[in-house]
Amino acid sequence: MSAYADFHRRSIEHRDEFWAEQSGLVDWHTPPTQVCDYSNPPFARWFVGGKTNLCHNAVDRHLNQRADQVALIAVSTETDTERTYTFAQLHAEVQVMASVFAALGVKQGDRVLIYMPMVAEAAFAMLACARLGAIHCVVFGGFASGALASRIEDAEPCLIVSADAGSRAGKVIPYKPLLDEAIAQSKHKPTAVLLVDRALSAMNLAAGRDHLWAQMRQQHLGASIPCTWVDATHPSYTLYTSGTTGKPKGVQRDTGGYAVALAASMKYIYGGKAGETYFSTSDIGWVVGHSYIIYGPLIAGMATIVYEGLPTRPDAGVWWSLVEKYQVTVMFSAPTAVRVLKKQDPALLSKYNLSSLRALFLAGEPLDEPTAQWISESLGKPIIDNYWQTETGWPILSLCNGVETAKSKFGSPGKPVYGYNVKLLDDQTGAELTGPNQKGVVAIEGPLPPGCLQTVWRDDARFVNTYWSSVPNKLVYSTFDWGIRDEDGYFFILGRTDDVINVAGHRLGTREIEESIASHPNIAEVAVVGVADDLKGQVAVAFAVVKDASGLADAAAYLKLEAEVMKVVDQSLGALGRPARIRFVSILPKTRSGKTLRRAIQALCEGRDPGDLTTMDDPLALQQIKDALVK
Ligand code: ATP
Ligand code: MG
């Protein structure tokens, strides 16, 4: 048995012993008396009796050894600014922010909603909450007022931290009017709003409610605010899921379990070491931003890059220039971003010295083989696909090369990560599928490991009903994703359980069809959805982004490409997988986090209302789908 298989087995069979060991990776004010309390399944309580603080672990505890090392690098290619903070400076700034929060009435357990662009102050705000034991609720900056209002109502924050504006592709997006509109819409009103003025957009201040960070910072400079020691089970934050499949859910995370899970993941998955630099291209509005821009790297004593801007501005070499400049060792991004880069000049990749970089981790959606192959060859570095969810907070499937060196298989996010007792289950019977290459629902047997969601914010019933009640006859956590496991134990994610197409009784994962279509040399990206069909039950319909669209205005050329792509599918999957229609578009509808909104596409194809689109990036993409449907 391999070293990793042993490691994983121990994490399940000797769960408490395993996690007691990992708990030594973080500092405790009071050590836990019980590792895991699972007396009330599916609610797991980790490190019961322990008291700790996330901000202490991310900042204060590094002061002894690395006060003068860089902790935070805030880069904006939108405003052309770069600011760096050492651990000592970060410590000072976070205390000032915490002192301002306290002056504005924030106490332990209160919620603070953070609606911010990717600036250093957003990180200070999150850490200041952790310092005070307040619960942060980060809402992706630039979300429309309706989406923001519903989150304000759900979280009931006493304070909202925001800014005058964000910026995207050089275009200023004023946040303050969106925020004012959201507060007006919401039944709950915050008592205070703290605003970072970036001098991008004029703001109207509401007297008595709105405060300027720069002014308050001056008044609180030099403040000394100790960390509030909280129970390991104290909620550190709530965060909404991406909303790809429907109404976002408020995921609630603990403190102690999360700190331990992140510290362990930095060691066993990411291999990030103190004194090095971590670069995650995500946004603090998403779970990757929470775990691997802010807390994970800082807990590990690494410098972290907070990046505002596109991957392609001023040119598509910008990320790699940062890798060179800051000697980045570990990088984290999403397949969608890699696909964007793939369309750019490859010379921009080889222009920089990337020798510091050890690996690129990708997560958030399926990493198709051509994209994986391309980035792996272009960078000459290991590409490690991570499969996880907002709910889990850290990877469920990955390669854990901190334990042993395993090779990637393109298209697979690897094997179950230690702590996760992953099963493939028959969705109809709940029976476990143990043979190779059997298709099942990816499920996790309780207790979920440390760091995963404790519950849905203020809605225990929704937690149980949504996640733990979908597989017949079993209390297991459903990921709502389909997967298979090959003979070597590698998993492949086939798509979401609601993305499976049933053509004349045959169940096909949309991802299989997408991969096949994407192997055509002129296809950059594709989304396949199942559309109701009187005869076959469902048929597959594909929307593909072509690399070279010239000539497609000509109907004959359009049909020719469609026929060509269908032939590719016939050859790789058989006629059963062949889409009934393939439509060419220049952009696919996506969430702000880069996930394709198949649910909305499907609804449009079936003539239904596309539903909650508050997290959608570019509404024009949906218009293209509508237009393509009448072609
Ligand atoms: P919602 O739950 O609100 O519909 P969402 O599921 O898109 O939104 P996230 O928690 O951001 O919200 O995404 C997790 C999902 O993303 C997974 O369940 C899976 O479907 C997909 N995913 C994440 N990483 C990978 C990966 N490496 N390979 C394949 N799919 C992935
Ligand atoms: Mg989900």
SSE layout:
Blueprint lengths: L2 H11 L1 H8 L11 E7 L2 E6 L2 E2 L1 H5 L4 H4 L3 E7 L4 E6 H17 L7 E5 L4 H13 L2 E4 L6 H11 L3 E5 L1 E4 L2 E4 L1 H10 L6 E5 L13 E3 H8 L9 E2 L5 E4 L9 E4 L2 H15 L6 E4 L6 H13 L3 E6 L9 H8 L2 E6 L1 H8 L4 H4 L8 E5 L5 H11 L3 E4 L10 E2 L16 E2 L4 E5 L14 E6 L9 E2 L3 H8 L8 E10 L5 E6 L3 E4 L2 E4 H9 L4 E11 L3 E10 L8 H19 L7 E5 L12 H8 L13 H11 L2
Parallel strand pairs: 4-17, 6-7, 6-8, 7-14, 8-11, 11-12, 16-17, 16-18, 18-19, 19-20, 31-32
Antiparallel strand pairs: 1-2, 3-13, 4-5, 9-10, 14-15, 15-25, 21-22, 23-24, 24-26, 26-27, 28-29, 30-31
Helix pairs in contact: 1-2, 5-6, 5-9, 7-8, 10-11, 13-15, 17-18, 19-20
Bound molecules: adenosine-5'-triphosphate (ATP) and magnesium ion (MG).
Adenosine-5'-triphosphate (ATP) binds next to strand 20, strand 26 and strand 27.
